[in-house]
Design a protein that fits this description.
- The chain is globular.
- It has an eight-stranded mixed beta sheet, sandwiched between helices. Strands 9-10 form a two-stranded antiparallel sheet. Strands 11-16 form a two-stranded antiparallel sheet.
- It is built from twelve helices and 16 strands.
- It is 32% helix and 21% strand.
- The chain is α+β, with helices and mostly antiparallel strands.
- Strand 14 and strand 15 form a beta hairpin.
- The two termini are 51 Å apart.
Length: 427
């Protein structure tokens, strides 16, 4: 086994578990999006050294560099469906189902394997799109819409490029018929900021719903010193383009939620590439949770507030004790609390829990900093509280004080002293 294959084993099990779970328990919509994501990594790695990330990807068109993850997602909810790590050239050659197929076609077929013969519509960018991809997906019971740029084999690029499109929203197209004389694929060019060339096996070229964009424009002459104005542009588009743009940005939106809102890669520092990539995969699952919750409930809750509450519930939970009975302890045995550091065991029994309140300024506005109090034992500032005291305070809040206790560190035993003096835990 090569060194790179051995290092990839630190991540492969997580990816396989995600793929198997989504294929078994999640039913996507009629639209599926194919694209890629990046796990940011600035440490050691690359094919030239046997340490760190085995394959380091650095592309100008990507805002971050590191580990590339090719994926498919539900076109309506944005939930990730299947993931594939970009590994070595040997791994790509093992993926080849047919030597005559393009590399992008083989990858897309692998990302869509669990949903063969479901007649869903697949939207993908130019990395995957070609006439060959559309034909192969038809053979596997899937429809396709994609933007063609470089994979122009069998595509009428020269013919479509000769059409003169004068205004934004103009389009022209041609159809390809099968052996029975019925249309199977069609290619069209649509004018937006520049020409976009599409290949499709679904929908048609009848007028779709126009879309609008608001842009800054200098309406009056610059010499008048008048400021620019916001101008709305309404651009016609065919139904095929409307269907494509309704789903093609699902993975891009998912990436923005993970990188800009959740920000695990910025907040968790690590020198281990496997922890970085695995934390990225965990971030994808957390974003999926938010997407399902927001779509199912129609909530107006902010995304960052949801992540905060979710993390608190994951810290303080008893999910891992379902179907188990607590064993009675004899007196003299260790107390149920984790006395050595004051941490919870999956949030059970007595433990230190962080406050959920925020500090307020003198004018009453709420800050992003946690509320602090003085420890009942040593008097130092802390943001933690005794869980048993918090439960008792919630039951009878009148006359009760906030049970502040400092986090057990540097040899201090405030939590242990508090447990021994205020709570009689069953042995």
């Amino acid at each position: 086994m090569s060194s790179s294959a051995h290092r990839w084993m630190l991540i492969d099990d997580f990816v396989n578990a995600i793929n198997e779970h989504r294929a078994s328990y999640f039913e996507p919509s009629d639209l599926i999006c194919g694209d890629e994501s990046m796990s940011k990594w600035n440490g050691l790695g690359g094919t030239w050294i046997n340490i760190g990330l085995p394959v380091f990807v650095d592309m100008d068109r990507k805002p971050v560099k590191g580990c590339e993850i090719q994926n498919s997602a539900c076109g309506k909810s944005g939930v990730m469906l299947r993931l594939r790590l970009v590994k070595s050239q040997e791994d790509n050659e093992n993926l080849q189902q047919d030597d005559e197929l393009n590399h992008g076609t083989n990858i897309l077929l692998d990302l869509l394997r669990p949903w063969y013969n479901t007649d869903r519509v697949v939207c993908a960018d130019s990395y995957f799109a070609s006439v060959q991809t559309a034909e192969e997906l038809l053979q596997h019971g899937l429809r396709f819409i994609g933007v063609v740029k470089t994979a122009t084999r069998k595509y009428p690029m020269r013919f479509l490029s000769e059409f003169e499109l004068q205004r934004h929203g103009d389009y022209k197209g041609v159809f390809m018929k099968d052996g029975n004389g019925s249309p199977s694929l069609f290619a069209f060019v649509w004018m937006d900021r520049d020409r976009r060339y599409f290949i499709s096996s679904v929908s048609n070229l009848s007028p779709g719903t126009p879309y609008s964009r608001v842009r800054w424009r200098q309406v009056e002459d610059v010499e008048t010193n008048n400021p620019p104005e916001r101008v709305e542009f309404v651009i016609p588009q065919p139904k095929a383009a409307e269907m494509y743009y309704a789903a093609c940005a699902s993975i891009d939106r998912h990436n923005r939620c993970r990188q800009d809102s959740l920000q695990l890669e910025r907040k968790i520092g690590t020198l281990n590439f496997d922890m970085r990539v695995n934390s990225t995969l965990l971030g994808m699952m957390i974003v999926d949770t938010w997407l399902v919750y927001s779509k199912a409930t129609g909530t107006t809750e902010l995304e960052k507030d949801f992540y905060t509450k979710l993390s608190e519930e994951l810290i303080d939970n008893n999910y891992d004790t379902i179907g188990m009975r607590a064993r009675r302890r004899n007196r003299g045995e260790e107390t149920p609390a984790a006395i050595d550091r004051g941490l919870a065991r999956a949030g059970l029994h007595a433990h230190l829990t962080p406050t959920k309140k925020k500090r307020k300024r003198r004018d009453g506005t709420i800050t992003n900093y946690k509320l602090q109090g003085k420890c009942k034992i040593c008097g130092e500032k802390t943001t933690f509280m005794c869980s048993l005291c918090v439960d008792a305070r919630d039951e009878s809040p009148l006359g009760s004080k906030t049970p502040w206790l400092c986090y057990t560190s540097k040899g201090k035993l405030c939590f242990q002293l508090h447990i021994d003096s205020h709570h009689q835990l069953e042995g």
